[in-house]
Structure of Glycosyl hydrolase family 2, sugar binding domain protein:
Amino acid sequence: MNGITIIDKIKMEMGKVARRLCLGLLFGGMSCVGNEAGAVIKLPSLVGDRMVLQRGTDLKIWGWADPGEKVTVRFRGAHYYTEADGQGRWHVLLPPQQPGGPFLMEVNEKVIRDVLVGDVFLCGGQSNQENPIERLVEKFPEIPVSNNHMIRHFKVPYQDDVRGVKENLAGSGVWHSATASEVMNWTSLAYFFATEVYNRYKVPVGMLVSSKGGTDIESWISQEYLKDFPKLRVDREALEAAAEAKRDKGTGKWNRRDFDDSAWDSVDVPGTWRETGIRVKGSVWYRKNFRLPSSMVGRHAKLYMGRMSDCDSVFVNGTFVGTTAYFGPPRKYDVPAGVLVEGVNNVTLKLTALNGNGEIVRDKVYKLKGDDDEVELSGVWKYKVGFDRAEAEPYEQRLANLRHAGSGLYNGMIYPVRNWKVKAAIWYQGENNAGRAGEYAPLLTSLIADWRETWGWPEMPFLLVQLPNYMAKQDKPSDSGWARLREAQFQVSRNVPHTALAVTYDAGEWNDIHPLDKKTVARRLFLGARKIVYGEKVAASGPIYKGLETKGNRIILSFDDAGRGLSCRGGRLKHFAIAGEDRKFVWADAVIKGGKVVVSSPEVEHPVAVRYAWSNNPEEANLCNKDGLLASPFRTDNW
């Protein structure tokens, strides 16, 4: 065996595999050993240990594999067969499941443990939706000793891309239970809501939280549903044209040793782009063929490429030998043994200068040096433009709104979870849009319709959180962006079927935009869920303004949804304001009489309008029904 043992051969083969793997990672993660190691099934991060599946509906389990790969899913004593399509995608449909668990799911060789079947709620919005539960442990000491393994939480990792939808989530999110060792991974509103659901119905609960602080509602709506908001839409034609203009035509092709560059133009190297008439803001590829002295064939060599502006990538006979990302350093690259061959050899240079000042600097060394011989590389080269950013500039002008366009979070954090069946959605957002409250109602209406279409469920229930009280109280009645946004939320809850609104202007904090009392918010949301999600006959709303009648210096207000009758928290009604034709509001006296509210003020002899709880912080507003549910803020004017 010429002194080579079996162990030596094994080590040599292992070394070859390792080198191939490293090269694969260098050039974009291509698989070098996939067929030898066997095909591997890939699952979305949602399909993992401790997941909760929605009861009572068909369930889609999906993933990726090699095209044609056969896939078997086993769950609760049944098995389901499929195979990956030509793009490597596969899915199976499980029939409706009864609640329970924990169960085991197997997908080929993968095992998913501790699976529950129950009710899943999709939670969307901004920072108050994702308020970390660790902030609440002092206010609610039951949190650190939580011991409920039947409620679970999955926080969708951030992913924002206005350019198009994503098929998979970013990062590596995982499901967490609400045991003491895991509950600190939860968001606070999700925890209290899940607790309410479980305590009443005793079925497992999953909270799928897709939220991000400081975000506008339009970020969560698809481009198709922003058609009435041109400033929020992306010019798809310009986007595709700009991407094509920026695509380097030479990538993966022009660096090959045997590439035919006979049709390329010639240029003297070294030199500047401007001197040779190259007017490009992008990349230019250079190629030079040469013959080697026999002493250099198959040997290690050093490649000296002077200095360049700005970024270079260099290949010898198609083998990548080095790159430098900026102007200063000298370019000196190793050419590994075995790369140089007898006959014609090639050096390919990709030079990138996004500012257009491309340069191969004069009076520097440009040669290939071996131990005994060298090859001069300065002189005539072939060249061709890879891409010119200037060609994209007309399209980029049409894309000036990309930074402010909508849909980025829908694309990255809603669309990828569309296959996960849910019981209802919970939407808590609006702070970022308070300065543009006039457009919020149509945007929220679009969001609801959009998500319902995405999930293929026209009657998907939506539970909405109205903005709480915030900022300092004001001595006199005044207009308010927060009040107008609460009004928009209320209007949507009245006009869009299968929605419910949690009124929370007593659960905020004047000096904290992230109030801690998420338990009160969760309880009010759950009242809405009991009614529109679970079909209970329960009072879920406070009094709702219906109409007015003017009698002398008084305005008499009537209400719907008064339940067992109107009431008030405390001794007398507060936070009513009244105005005459001059539109100047003053604080008013208000009393409940005969199921109506009578409002007046000695300062307004001929009143025409009333506002209730109309401010940033109407914490003292106290009109409610006898079930203790607060009236939503309202106004009778349209000023």
Notes: The longest strand covers residues 110-125. The chain has four domains: 6-37, 49-56+113-234+403-540, 245-394, 544-635.
